[in-house]
Amino acid sequence: MDLDLARQAQAGEESAFAEIVRRYSPRVFSVASRFFRQRALVEEAAQEVFLKAYTQLGSFEGRGSLEGWLTRIATNTCLNMVRGAKRRPEYTVSDLTDDEQGWLEQQSAGDGGEPASVENSIVATDLADRLLSVLSPEDQQALLMIDGEQASIKEVAEATGWSESKVKVRAFRARRKVREAMEKLLSYKRA
Amino acid sequence: MPEGNQTNKHITEMLDNTSIAMLSESELLEIHVHTLDCMSCRDAFEAARLSAVVIKSRAEATIEPSPFFQTRVMAALREQQAVESVPAMLRLWRSAKALVSVMAVTTAALAVVSFIQPSQTTPVVDQTASAYSAYSVIMDQGADDQMSYEQVLSTIYEDDDDAR
After folding, report:
1. Are B58 and A128 in contact, with CB atoms under 8 Å apart?
2. Which residue of B has its CA nearest to A28?
3. Range ranked top by mean pLDDT from A22-36, A104-118, B128-142
């Protein structure tokens, strides 16, 4: 089914490619959302992914799913887009907004393990972005996919093209760095 | 003490090795028992727990495609195909057209300045010189053609009279 659709699109059938875009854009947007927070950037990245996919349709042999193939193109395209972005060397408590400090206090006091309200969720997401900015884009992806989306090592390896051992190393390193950064924030607060 | 350090390392490695949500019950129990007495591991566990909460929250913050996205992609694809269907030389000409035009106008302007302008100014200079200088009357053959014999003589002797 996927292969037929891909072949029809490759042969120039516009409706077939439109169907691919319609069917798989939620997945491509989900991947791009891991890299970008602004809608405009997510849409730009997703468009780039589909244009790239169209030119590479001939390389899709139907061994895996079209969704998996597009996920890989999306991951690599977004990684290339963010590779030039600068990393923060360190993150200190003085960089925290009042909301973020309040959220940390609330969580440390044990007022709930999950961010319940929309506001809390936004604060937690902002905090995550700040903590993740100390990591390389590759390590960020490994951590977000495994710890955030509960993806398996194998799934991450398939989506990125990295070996499974590489995925494990990236996730371990990312987890440690983020934990240490969070620990530092908490110790500053206690002091 | 070394045994304690070893356990601390074991706990932090356990926390870094896998997502906190994936820790087994026995692992969680081990951590819980250890952190009752160990402050540093308690801090590490707390930091790992909060990190997991924010990472999960970040992963859930996904943006849905707008209803116009499909149309946007198809329009971009058509545009790309239109660009690719034009021959390479024509595309090169289109992009370089403005530059080539400017260069052609500049070349034409330089040609006008180099060839046409000097031929208009030279006779004016010569005429002025032949009218007032004996030297130019004798040496400049072009000026001789334009003056009569009497004019030449009068110009020569006029200079002599002025000298006396």
Report:
1. yes
2. B65
3. A22-36
For residues B3-41, b (16+ Cβ closer than 10 Å) or e, as one string? eeeeeeeebbebbbebbbeebeeebeebbeebbeebeeb
What average pLDDT does range B36-49 have in this prediction? 91
Which residue is it, tokens 């014999």?
Answer: B149
**CB pair distance less than 8 Å for B53 and A124:** yes
Tell me the backbone φ, ψ of residue A12, rounded to 5 degrees: 105, 10
Q: List b or e across B91-127, with b for residues whose CB sees 16 or more CB atoms inside 10 angstroms.
A: eeeeeeeeeeeeeeeeeeeeeeeeeeeeeeeeeeeee
- Tell me the two tokens of residue A51: 């244009």
Give the pLDDT score at A108: 76
Number of Cβ pairs < 8 A linking chain A and chain B: 134
> Quick check: ipTM above 0.95?
no
Name the residue with tokens 């996205």: B69
Distance in Å from the first CA to the final CA of chain B: 126
Residue of chain B minimizing CA distance to A124: B54
Instruction: Tell me how many degrees the CA angle A176-A129-A134 measures, rounded to the nearest 5.
Output: 45
Per-residue pLDDT tens over the stretch A10-46: 898 999 999 999 999 999 999 999 999 999 999 999 9
The structure tokens listed for A32 are 């791009």
A131 and B80: CB-CB below 8 Å?
no
Chain A residues inside the 8 Å CB shell of B62: 29-30, 33
**Residue with tokens 């990125």, as numbered in its chain:** A160
The secondary structure of residue B66, as a DSSP letter, is: P
pTM over 0.80? The answer is: no
